[in-house]
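Appendix B: complex inputs.
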Amino acid sequence: MNNFQKNKLIDHSFKILGMLFTFLGILILAILIYNIVKVGYTRINWTFLTSLPSRKPENAGIYTAIIGTLDLMLLTVLFAIPVGVGAGIYLEEYAKKSKLSSLLEINISNLAGVPSIIYGLLGLGVFVRFFNFGGSILSGSLTLSLLILPIIIVATREAIKAVPHSLKEASFALGASKWQTIKNVVLPSSFGGILTGIILSLSRAIGETAPLIVVGAMAYVPFVPQSIFDTFSVLPMQIFNWTTRPQQGFAIAAAGAIIVLLLITFVMNGIAVYFRNRWQKKLQ
Amino acid sequence: MKYKEKLIENFFKFCASITIFTTIGIIAVLLFESISFFRDVSIFEFLTDTQWTPLFSEKHFGILALVSGTFLTAAIAIAVALPIGLTIAIYLNMYAPKSFRKTLKPFLEILAAIPTVVYGFFALTIVTPFLQTIYPDLETFNSLSAGIVMGIMIIPFISSLSEDALYAVPKSLKLAAFGMGSTRFQTAFKVMVPAASSGIIVSVILAISRAIGETMIVAIAAGQQPQLTLNPTVPVQTITSFIVQVSSGDAPQGSVEYKTIFAAGLTLFLFTFTLNSVSFWIKKKYQEKYE
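Resulting structure:
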């Protein structure tokens, strides 16, 4: 075999290896989903969705966990969206190139890399203890809001950056003020990108477990929370708790709850991808 | 009118400053409780003792036992994710047809969107029993299974970021290599990877940082026994899963057990902060190389 053939062979082998690894990733995804559905599908019914948690695995349901997840997300949306989008607008439209703005930038990129459990410790120290909100829905959602803030800010900035300069200049030329331009030109044309970022960040927040454990989410909440100061459970918390129990029945219940959680996550990611594609087409 | 404009600008400024307060808050909380912890426990013991037993009656506070578990699981994860992730990145960039790339990438990215608690369940109930059929002495809780699954989770992380880095290499370099008669393999490893090396290194550093801070997979599948070991078949405990263990119980505020999670958290924060800063520095330094 001469050099040429040898190089050709190496080239071809690597191509096959690359293909194998790419499909391996997708294969693992398929194995994961298949195994979980196989174990958990028997629990997927109306009773499972509307039952309270129980000490008996066959009676246990995810009602309080679902309500807890919904409550938590609602509050997180309320806190994180205005602050995240606002910070993104400030950095793109107002901040001048200065020490402060580069400090803000470094800081946000660093925050994006802080492990989620550290946010839990922040929430425990500040919201649970210092402000005395206790292990409540309020503490949990404030903690998650801070956690997803960097994602929303980065997405907002990317979306605003993609708005053509000519649009903004046209608006200024018509005598519009800065805020009028942002409100009437910049935000409407970057809406798709911002929305994509928000949905992706929420899909991340829905799956978070570690910071909520630290903040004090409960594994066993036999009632529906009445106010934002009540204790709560969420779907991932319920899954974690059932996974760590020795009885096989709880493993099945955990798989059932995972199916619900994965469905929510996939649907949200699907919607995000849909909006992104539509928005990118519109921009072009 | 002018007043309103100013008010709005200040509101946005306030929003941006919340990110600064978050960082200050994290450092303040970690330092405040850690200082109080180090009044009870000497820093020397914390850094040199090889046992970690704050929840037992005979208490030891050697963070090394947790650090070793943390780095063992992270090392296994990187050993899985780096070769696979990088190969996928090169394959998608150099070999795969464009349409192929466009359909495959979102699929791979689903791997990164799956909640980590689901991966934990996968590691404990599917991967560990499977590995036990190959190696029967593997214990129910072990760092091998947790590390492998964590590696799977960060594959898209490495492949996406590395692919972006390869994509940013000027086309002229690639074409020049082809023009010299190089195969795609030679072009990839002699031209593209060296040219994109800073971006690839950044992706690996960020992946290590991610692996060190990952919590739920190790909390579920790696066990709760802090020990100074490199044996991947026995239970270990990571910094993160220790914090989960204490938080799931009810350590009274002010007790030493309560304060340990902040000292452990501070250690974790220092690791990830260093890694993230290094990666940010590399990115800034080499970003404009080709512009």
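Chain B touches chain A through 85 residues (CB under 8 Å).
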